[in-house]
Amino acid sequence: MTDSVLNVVLGLVASAISAGLGWLAQALRRRRKVERVRGFLGLPSGSECLIVVPRSIGTGSHAHTVTRRDAYALMWLAGLVEECGARPELVAHDAAHRGLGAKTELCLGGPVSNDRMAAHLAWGLPGVLVTSGPGPGSNVLVVGDRDFRADQDQAHTLLARIATPDDGRPVFLISGQTGTANQAGVRYLVSHHRELARKYGQNGTFALVLRVVNPEAYGPDMVELVADVTAEALRRPAAASTTA
User: To the nearest 5 percent, what fractions of the chain are helix, strand and coil?
Assistant: First the structure.
């Protein structure tokens, strides 16, 4: 074998090794990213996850009717679970009679339409109060001394992650003031779960208020982060603490 041929062969071998190492490095980076997301969501490959389904609160709705917007949101949540290699289990809000920590739980809807959501807020985020009524301005999300009202120009969503005792699997809450706000909250979680994982870690509790801009015109697509209200949401109201 001449020197020129040998140099060509060595060059090809070096290129192949370099390409292989590059592919391996990219694969390891992708794997680490996936594992961080799985850790943040509490969804190791092959695990199971509860998706708690709210009921429709429209006039004449059946107890287990789900709105079209919430159905879309549930599909996005199921897709996020399956992306992690886990299996979603849909459970009606009034049939999820089980404890916390054994499985990751994704709970959708406000406390008026979801009994499980009401229980989670009272237990894990006592500083959050949700009021709802038929009149304009009656749909209000209150966190501490701040209130976020829904009107024709905006709606809000509480997106929260609650750590469970004994390092159990987390509970995620997506509680919107409207069906469109529920859908927007889910899409925000799907789009931003990697940066949320970097910011809050795998075991952190957080509560965020999102604003859906002009939902009648833009649907769930225009969403912005209004505030991190974790401290206020975790703080039990003074009246409740003195009477306990």
Answer: 45, 25, 35
